[in-house]
């Protein structure tokens, strides 16, 4: 919600900001005075927001988010979501498999070069040795169609399983 003043200035009104600011103070183990010192504002500014007399300025919110980068800006401004951003440990890891998934061994033998691949794009020396093994989850319903290797010089190479050649 906002008020329009003189066509160029907007004042944002945050009706529950005092509750959110109180929650930040308690969760960070601070006092209003320590919070003011931490973000570089006057103690009276914090006091006025907590009493409901004033609303925080954009500068105040920016300083708060810069000093406490784990705070969720959407929660702070709109009251949506959690007080803190989700951490990496809250998210499932990309390469972890459930314990119930059976693992199988797959050979890393390099297939023949697909037609149309020039010798300058041939980066086979960077691939693992042909006799090394990689453990993958056993999923009989899925088969590899092709593998695409992306290189830092903006080139790529495509490899196809031997059964498709």
Describe the structure.
The chain is of the alpha+beta class. The chain has two domains: 2-90, 434 Repressor (Amino-terminal Domain); 103-164, no CATH class. It contains five helices and six strands. It has helices spanning 17-27, 32-39, 43-51, 58-67, 73-78; strands spanning 2-5, 9-12, 103-107, 133-137, 147-150, 156-159. Strands 1-2 form a two-stranded antiparallel sheet. Strand 1 (2-5) and strand 2 (9-12) form a beta hairpin. The longest helix has 11 residues, at 17-27. It is elongated, with a radius of gyration of 28 Å.
In short:
Helix content is 27%, strand content 16%.
Question: Which value, in Å, is the CA radius of gyration?
Answer: 28 Å
Q: Please work out how many helical segments DSSP would assign.
A: 5
How many individual β-strands? Answer: 6
Order of helices and strands: EEHHHHHEEEE
How far the N terminus sits from the C terminus, by CA atoms, comes to 62 Å
Q: Quickly give the CATH architecture of the largest domain.
A: Orthogonal Bundle
Instruction: Determine the mean pLDDT.
Output: 75
Q: What is the CATH superfamily of the largest domain?
A: lambda repressor-like DNA-binding domains
**CATH fold name of the largest domain:** 434 Repressor (Amino-terminal Domain)
Indicate the overall shape.
Answer: elongated
